[in-house]
Each structure stands twice: as structure tokens, then as C-alpha cells.
Amino acid sequence: MPDAGEVEILRRCQEGDEEAFRQIVERYQRRTYWIAYHMLGNYETAREISQEAFVRVFRNVARFDIRKNFYTWLYQIVVNLTIDRMRKMSHAKTVGLEGLGGVADPLPPPAETGEKTELRRRVHGALDRLPPKYKAVLTLRDIQGFSCQEIAEIVDCTNATVRWRLHRARRLFRALWEGRPSGSLDDDSPASAS
Amino acid sequence: MDMSCDDIRDLLPLYAGGELEDAERILAEAHLDGCASCARELDLYREDRARLAELRGDEPPAGTWARLQDGLQAELFPRRRSRYAFLLRLAAALLAGLALGVVFHKGRREAPAAPGSGTHEVVDAGALRALPAAAVRVPFVPVPRAPRANPEGRHHLPRVESFPPPDERDF
Lengths: 194, 171
Fold this sequence. Notes:
The complex is a heterodimer.
Chain A: H1 4-14, H2 18-40, H3 43-60, H4 70-94, H5 114-128, H6 132-143, H7 148-155, H8 159-178
Chain B: H1 5-17, H2 22-32, H3 36-54, H4 64-76, H5 78-110, H6 125-128, E1 142-143, E2 161-162
Antiparallel strand pairs in B: 1-2
Helix pairs in contact in B: 1-2, 1-3
């Protein structure tokens, strides 16, 4: 359940209050940005995705039921936009149009030692090779710390499907980290997936 | 019920993150207590989770938040800025028009009437008795007077007399 303060801010957003919207952006911009970044591995693309997500929120907030958790809705938009972008980038690579949809190579954060930078490159390298749906649940769970139930609401599937994807994602990540053949990396789903 | 290492290894990815159901967790813990190989593999999954969790402390390039907010401002609220500028321009235009109107009107009132123009109104005889009517062109400004009672006790409607404003009297 959302807190009363946020409900009031959202109500003002629904009336087009610019200041209320600014408060929403300040409250959620960091997490929004990092979800997009850790799935895409590019700072500029993550900023574009974040901006697009907040634009969609502002333009559709009048239809949002403020009794529900706002962050679930926001992060659902972010994850969907990010997955769409990942698929475009993947398609661009397939047809030889690399670079048009944004660079997928991770950039090291500023002021870091070489060892940490190399570690981050390896982690992002393994993440980048995961299918989008597995990368999404792994990012939301192991990087952002959401519960399985919250992830289920964000990605709009059952708790069981989230656990199944998490299971697959961690096994694939382990295999990629060790450089072992990981079998099929296709985005297969269990029969019970919604 | 004893589970084989293959069965337990299948549970380890979720055991590492605390996502197992209670029954599965109890079975896994019972096996792990006595199996070093599975315990090592569990540690590897936990290390993977720790590496991913370290990414949480990243900082973006300088100016990221400002650029995000500026981008939102430009995309969602650009009309607010142009509307404000439009109102300023409108106000400036109105003031300029008003100023020009005042100057123009004042200039017309100060200009002397040409002789023989034939423009004259009835004025208070006491004020302009000495002046020929054609010499001065005065604006007509009706000034209502209070009604005066007639000998029979009935009030007439006020007689409106033309009377020039004080600053226009020329005597």
C-alpha cells in the first residue's frame, strides 16, 4: 500500500501539478535509471529510457489508480521499454546495424581502480549475454533487491514464473562466468509461465 | 528423504537467494550439512549474487540527474515557458498602445481650433461670456445637476448642461 504522502503527490500529478511531478521524478529517478542501466549497460541509453518512462508516467498518470503501488507501475514501464530497446539492439546486431540503437558495451564508472573496472566489465559481459527476460529478473532481484512478489507485479507474471526465470538466469550466469558451455541461451519458458 | 546431489544442485540457485519453499529448503539444508561438493557449489552461487549486488553502489556520470530533469522539462512543459513570454509581450504591447493613445489624445486636445470651424457647444455663460464662440473649441462634457423642486413641489429631471472640464476653461 502506498503511503499517504505519496498518494497526495500522485493526486496532484493527476491534476497536472508540475511541482508534484518533479517530486515523483526526484524520488524515483535513481532506481529507474539503474534498472535501465544494468539491463542495457550504457549510461546515455539508460538516461533516455528513464526520461521516456517518466514522460509516459506523466501522460498516463490520470488513468493510474493511486491506491495501488506507484513504483510497480513505473518499473513495469521501465522494464518494458528496456526490453524493447534490447530487442532492437539485438536486431541491429543481427542485420549489421550496430551502433544505431546505442552501444551495449559497459562503460566503467568514474574514479575506479582497474581491478574493479575489470570485474564490472566481466559482470556486465555475462549479464549482456542473458536473454532479456532472464536479465530482467536477475537485475531486479540480485542488483536492485526486489522481492519475488514485487518482481512478479513488475514483469506481470506469477511468482512461480519469476522463481523459474531466476533459477535459469543464475545457472546461465554461473556458466557464462566460468566460461563453460551453457547449453541453450534461448528465452524458453516453463509450461506454467503466464 | 535423502536427495541426490543432482536433485540438490537443481535447488542451489534459488537456495542461494532465499527463494526456496520451506519444504525444499529443509531438504537442501539436510543434504548440504553432509556434502562438501554441494556446499562449494552453493558458495559459488552466493559469490555471483555478491558480485551483482556490488553494482548497486554505482554512481552515474556527473550531470546525469540534471540532464534527465532538463529533458523532462523540455518535453513536458515547453508551453509554460512560451505562454509566459507571450503574456509579457502582450502586456508590453498593451502598455505601448496605451501610452501612444494618451500622447495622441493629449495632442489633439491641445491643438487650437481653426477659425470658422463652426464647432461650439453651449457652455456656462458666466465662464465664457466674453469669448466669441468660434474662437474656442471646447469638448462637450455633460454634467448632471441635482434636481430642483418646482413651485408645485414636483422634481424635474436634472437638466444636463454642457460644461467644460476645469482644465479646458480658457478664461
